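Hi F.,

I've been meaning to write this up properly since the lab meeting, where we talked about keeping a consistent format for the predictions we share between groups. The idea is simple: the sequence comes first, exactly as it goes in, then the structure tokens exactly as they come out, then a line or two of notes. No screenshots and no reformatting. I'm using this chain as the first example so we have something concrete to point to.
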Amino acid sequence: MQKKPLFIILGLFIAPILIAKLVLVNDWYQGAKTNTGELISPPLTMSRPPEAWLLLYNPSEKCAQQCQQSLWQMQQVHTLLAAEGKRVQRYLTQYPETVIRPEILSRDHVEISTLARLKLSPVNQQQLSTDTLYLVDPLGNIFMHYQYPTDRAAAIKVSAGLLKDLKRLLKISKIG
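Output, unedited:
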């Protein structure tokens, strides 16, 4: 009669451990994720750190509708950062074969900087996807990317996620 309460007490302590082990072994647990962008693992590195947070956009051969929409979304995110926006710079990778009309940059994106060439190792330069926005930390690590869809509503959702990620990073970051 006294063994029954002992088994119940042992069961209360052992059952959660066994259930947790079962959940982990069978991959029933999906880990929590706080970022909305896609992490780049391992991160790409720039040979010369930028000393600030960067929003780095890599356009396609011709800056078409999607490219211009992405530039506009990038500008909106930077504006919504308000005071924290001083810690973030916007860059556009422009390879020699990339054609972007200068009037687009001068009219709509005055404060965006254009890089003649990224300071990346040759292997990493080929790993950058076109029409993709990258987050770069002040240490030169390209660690997250966002692919803007052609649908405007979906692009706004991606921008909201980018803004959320940037605010979180700038809040907890002591660098840049």
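Notes:
The chain has a mean pLDDT of 82.
Strands lie at 38-45, 53-58, 88-93, 113-115, 132-136, 141-147.

If this format works for you, I'll send the rest the same way.

G.
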